[in-house]
């Protein structure tokens, strides 16, 4: 069956929550970018307009002062007369320079940029004040020249770079102001705003993931507790799982599990009850049939006609053996050591007794029974009738499947951690691929000449499980035959 890698609930929630948070952050970053871009545009555009008005006001004031000075000088010349001015060479030179046409020269010169104390963004700002006569009144210390004047806001590409411009025409029409800044200034500002808004969230993402992992793990503890209870419980236990402290969302699942356990328990109880009842009901008529057959056989033996009835008696014996096994299995299925009287069972003594009781059966096939190992009482805690049934079934099976003149040996050895009971025979053995299947009910070996119900090893396995022991089956390596090893722990 192909295995699938199922994603855990914790991992699935972590991936879902982190993905959702990241998506929400990306959406938030997009809207932060839009809002920052809009606000930066608004603020920077307002700054351009404000700065242009300040420059226009200052420039207008400067021009008015210059016009007033010229007017005062012209009045002075009129009052003094041209003869006086011509007689004073220095005064005439001053008047000629002051009144000269300097339209080809900037009216004012901006203080040079200080690269040590100035700001790097100064190189990204520019302005120009120009009169209607084409004279430049004032401009920034940049090699950049603005192409055309456009009133209001506009974008221009100057020297391969995009500039944001604002043009203001002086109300009296004497000059216009053009001020601009590189668009990269705004882009850098927007990027800084978005980055500074998001980097704390990006840095905290691993910590948020760890926090989610811990919180989700704590929330899943009740579910994990239920899973551990189901996983670690005895495979034969069908007790209901308590819903105390179970989250409301998990209660329906636990209730369904408990309902399933109850249905399985009812099915098993009905099966055991049927087996026990059927065996009890059949025991009496079979016993009566055997008695009649034996009585009739004794009467017919005198006439030489008892062979057929002897076969009937043997068949009845087999049916009786099957019933006994069914009853034993029913008792074992409904029993556990916790509900049984636990004794200190002597494996040595019980082994000797069972071997003695099966001596006649072995003698019919000329099979040699032997015991080896410990010669003193070997005590294990357990259920005495169960141990007796285990020994009888193992030795009886070995006798059944061992051919005539064979050997069956019981070996008992004590070890530091366990006690091993080994039953070996010289039968045909069992293929490895079929050994595990023999523990199932009504499964028999392949020897068709043997008599049995197929329940012996199933009962043995049940008794082994009740005593918390283990059973292993292996073919002999030295010769033909089978070895069955039961290991009892020192303490149940």
TrEMBL record:
Catalytic activity: ATP + protein L-histidine = ADP + protein N-phospho-L-histidine
Presence of keyword Transmembrane: yes
Record-annotated Histidine kinase domain positions: 277-492
KW DNA-binding (keyword) present: no
One GO term describing the cellular component: plasma membrane
Topology relative to the membrane: Multi-pass membrane protein
Keywords: ATP-binding, Kinase, Membrane, Nucleotide-binding, Phosphoprotein, Transferase, Transmembrane, Transmembrane helix, Two-component regulatory system
Record localization: Membrane
E.C. code: 2.7.13.3
Pfam family, one: HisKA
PROSITE patterns: HIS_KIN (PS50109)
Positions of transmembrane segments: 12-33, 198-220
MF annotations from Gene Ontology: ATP binding; phosphorelay sensor kinase activity
The protein, known as: histidine kinase
Organism, as annotated: Candidatus Thiodiazotropha endolucinida
